Amino acid sequence: MYSPFCQFAPSPQQKVSHGRPRHAADVEGRQNGIDRDLVGFLARYKRVPITYAGGVSDYGDIELISYLSDNNMDFTVGSCLDLFGGNLSYERIVKRITTR
Asked: Which of 28, 41, 62, 80 suits a disulfide with 54, CB 3.0-4.6 Å?
């Protein structure tokens, strides 16, 4: 079945790490920072909404996603939130999102 999103999948020659395609799940939940290369790669596709998830560890990572994507990419955060024992304030994240 054809999907218009198939054209966005990296070719076998692109974005391969340890013999397999790269995926943000490789850094998810570890709070060790985002995959900058993957954010940059995904940021090239401005025709479809993209949400990056995985590895956010501080507010700098959130700003880097915004910078690398020219403010065209959403993000999710999970274990780094104070609600789940992390060091990022849920209230501050909500405020950032609602004031943009």
From this structure: 28
pLDDT digits over 25-41, tens only?
A: 554 555 568 889 889 99
Confidence of residue 69 (pLDDT cuts 50, 70, 90): very high
Please name the residue that has the structure tokens 């054209």: 7
The domain total for the chain is 1
Indicate the angle between helix axes 90-98 and 59-68, nearest 10 degrees.
30
Q: How many residues would you count in the chain?
A: 100
- Which residue range(s) make up the domain with 76? 23-98
Q: What tokens does 87 get?
A: 């060091």
Rounded CA-CA distance 50/87 in Å is 25
